[in-house]
Amino acid sequence: MQKKLTDRKFRNTNYMVLITIHSMKLCNNGFRSNFLEFLMNFVENRKYFVSANGSNSHTKTVNIGVSQGSSLGSLLFLLYINDMINSSDLLKFSLFADDSTATYSNSNLNTTLNILKVEFSKVLDWLTANKLIINLKKIL
User: Fold this and answer.
1) Tens-place pLDDT, residues 14-47
2) What pLDDT score does 137 carry?
3) Cβ burial, residue 87 (10 Å; 0-12/13-18/19+)
4) Residues 9-45, buried b or exposed e (16+ Cβ, 10 A)?
5) What whole-number distance in Å separates Cα of residue 138 and Cα of residue 116?
6) CA dihedral 125, 129, 131, 132 (to 10 degrees)
């Protein structure tokens, strides 16, 4: 039971850190407090049900989060990662929903490898600061 409480506490703490970071980023992009209040109401204690063949399931509550695949979820994630492009001056980033790429080109292989090592270290620092991780299964 202690582990379960600890896990829940960690999730809530991590959630508050993410909300704080996201709120700061939204403010930096010109969003005002009334939108931030709407956002908090939108992501907390959401209710949903499944409808199939004319029948509806019982209503369930999602404590935290947005619907997977929702337009708002994708937009919020893009706003959250938008400043990743500032983590490196040499990498070229393409950001799309949850699928982002970083590229670099140079005619000398050794130079390219050395630069990528340094620049990806900067990107990893940005990811760590923003509480994000890379899915290694998707990049190998």
Assistant:
1) 566 677 777 888 888 888 888 878 877 777 777 8
2) 80
3) buried
4) eeeeeebeeebeebeebbeeeeeeeeeeeebeeebee
5) 18
6) -30
